[in-house]
Design brief:
Elements (H helix, E strand, L loop, with lengths): L1 E4 L6 E4 L7 E3 L6 E3 L29 E7 L1 H13 L11 E7 L5 E8 L1 H35 L3
Antiparallel strand pairs: 1-2, 3-4, 5-6, 6-7
Amino acid sequence: MAEVSCPWCGAIIPFTADEAGTSGRCPGCHQGILFPDTSFAPTPAPRSRSTSEACRVCGSTAPLRRVSETSIGGWIVFAVMLLTCIPASPFALFIKDRWAVCSRCGCRVHKVGSETWPLYVLGVAYFGALLIGAVVLIAYLNLGAQAIRTYVPR
């Protein structure tokens, strides 16, 4: 049985010789991966982090786990959107930071990346909500003007 490291989340995934040369999904992050053909390459040694990446709290050098959580910017955008455009506000909670954490104590070791695609969704939703609000306001003012013309004698 051989192992491959997921390029997306770093998880070690075992696979059989029958699966070599095929593609599959990582059980951790569900991204597509390619199982290498093991007949040409030796099996890589299991990954462990270097001593420079030892946990600051417990000193462990065990492999890191990857976690994703709502970023502080996501919470700020959520609060602003909650005050201005309630239907689009939950999209802000998808603005995430990805962290490598110690698998022994759970302490953050370093930041891996960020997911900012929800900002584009929020921009479109916010613009759409403003556009719909403007159309409704214009229609309301137009109906009010028609009602005034109807009831005012000439």
